[in-house]
Design a protein that fits this description.
The chain has 381 residues and is an alpha/beta fold. The chain has 15 helices and 15 strands. The protein folds into 2 domains: 185 residues, Glycogen Phosphorylase B (Rossmann fold); 174 residues, Rossmann fold (3-Layer(aba) Sandwich), CATH 3.40.50. The strands form 3 sheets. The chain has a 7-stranded parallel beta sheet, with helices on both faces. A 6-stranded parallel beta sheet has the order 12-11-10-13-14-15, sandwiched between helices. The radius of gyration is 21 Å and the shape is elongated.
Length: 381
């Protein structure tokens, strides 16, 4: 790289592999590839008990230096002071550290307190969710004293602006990237289709993400009943571990709709690229916050058309009638019609998939996302 290498601290207080956490690790990989040194501080306490999920995932980022923080929710004198002590030692032991990049409110406050002792630090905040930020004076001061604020979608930027936190022109909108080497059209989906016992020509509708209410999977199951009526052999696969929604509840709904034998919920899987490659169409049925949809980019990188609702960042990422089809959230008929359009016109689906892959290659790789964030970092000096 031509620019000066930086030492950057990324802090991730998520306790599970959410889209936000994936964004942090993806960004870290891209920055390391660009010659920067990246340290990652991860949450290691949840409800008073040790958790190592994030530490394990962070250690998969080749070249990153990973260390635990508490990062408990809310204010905790014990844990917050311990974290400040850890961060203070980190600064003393790494005098070349210049950037602290926070991704949630807890680490944002910690970073600003740390900067009081080390005023040469530059604090960057990325906001990943569309939930409203309360416009009280502390939040306004927090954001306005931050060196750079990034939103992962125009919806998030507009939310911060309309709530009076920051003017829109002070917020950069930067989407995350996807590992286009891990997700690509050359992957064979045949192993997963063999696991399901379906031929390559059977329509496979796939959704990926934790079983949370905000994902709208009940809407998707209802939508699939309409798809099943037109394509009786079609299958619906929803990949993700249980969170707010139980697998049993979705299967009971499928049974009520008489499609249980066509719906599959395999839980958490590590072979997501293969499952996406097996799909005919990827679906994102979210009814709420989608601050940073890695899944949309992964489907596109794999060369698959996407049917998606219009919440959060999704209209920014998916080009309607070019890389996929955008539909209204919460209405089962809308995704059903979108899926049927693609299944009834395979050539259109393939064209959408090719266009999606091209868009990823030109705009949404991990490398290009890291380059954009790098530009913000370097502009602070």
């Amino acid at each position: 790289m031509d620019s000066m290498p930086l030492t950057i601290l990324q802090i991730a207080s998520s306790s599970s592999m959410t889209g936000e956490a994936g964004h942090v690790f993806s960004l870290s990989r891209g920055l390391i590839e660009r010659g920067h040194r990246v340290l990652i501080g991860c949450r290691s306490i949840k409800k008073g008990k040790p958790v190592d999920v994030m530490l394990q995932e962070a250690r998969k980022v080749e070249g990153a230096e990973v260390f635990p923080l508490n990062l408990v929710k809310g204010i905790s004198l014990r844990y917050d002071l311990a974290d400040l002590g850890t961060l203070d030692r980190l600064c003393r032991n790494n005098p070349e550290l210049r950037i602290v990049h926070a991704h949630r409110s807890k680490e944002h406050w910690l970073a600003m307190l740390l900067r009081r002792r080390y005023p040469y630090l530059r604090v960057v905040r990325t906001r990943h969710v569309t939930t409203r930020t309360r416009p009280h004076i502390l939040n306004r001061r927090l954001y306005r004293n931050t060196d750079a604020v990034i939103a992962t979608s125009t919806a998030i930027r507009d939310g911060l602006a309309t709530s009076g936190i920051l003017p829109a022109e002070s917020i950069s909108v930067l989407h995350g990237g996807v590992d286009a080497k891990r997700f690509h059209p050359g992957i064979s989906g045949e192993p997963f289709r063999q696991e399901l016992g379906v031929d390559m020509d059977v329509p496979l509708v796939v959704a990926v993400g934790h079983l949370d209410r905000v994902k709208g999977y009940d809407v998707l199951v209802r939508a699939f009943r309409e798809v099943h009526r037109a394509f009786p052999a079609a299958r619906l696969v929803i990949v993700g571990e249980e969170h707010e929604v139980r697998r049993e509840d979705l299967m009971n709904l499928a049974a009520e709709l008489d499609i249980a034998d066509r719906v599959h919920l395999p839980g958490r899987r590590e072979d997501i690229p293969v499952i996406m490659a097996a799909s005919t169409v990827g679906v994102i049925s979210s009814v709420g916050s989608e601050g940073n949809s890695r899944v949309a980019l992964e489907f596109m990188a794999t060369g698959k058309p996407v049917v998606s609702t219009t919440v959060g960042c999704l209209p920014d990422l998916i080009r309607d009638n070019e890389t996929g089809i955008l539909v209204a959230p919460g209405d089962s008929d809308a995704p059903a019609q979108g899926i049927l359009r693609i299944l009834e016109a395979p050539e259109m689906g393939r064209a959408f998939g090719k266009a999606g892959r091209k868009l990823v290659e030109t705009t949404y790789t991990e490398e290009s996302a890291a380059e954009r964030v790098e530009g913000i970092y370097l502009g602070l000096f």
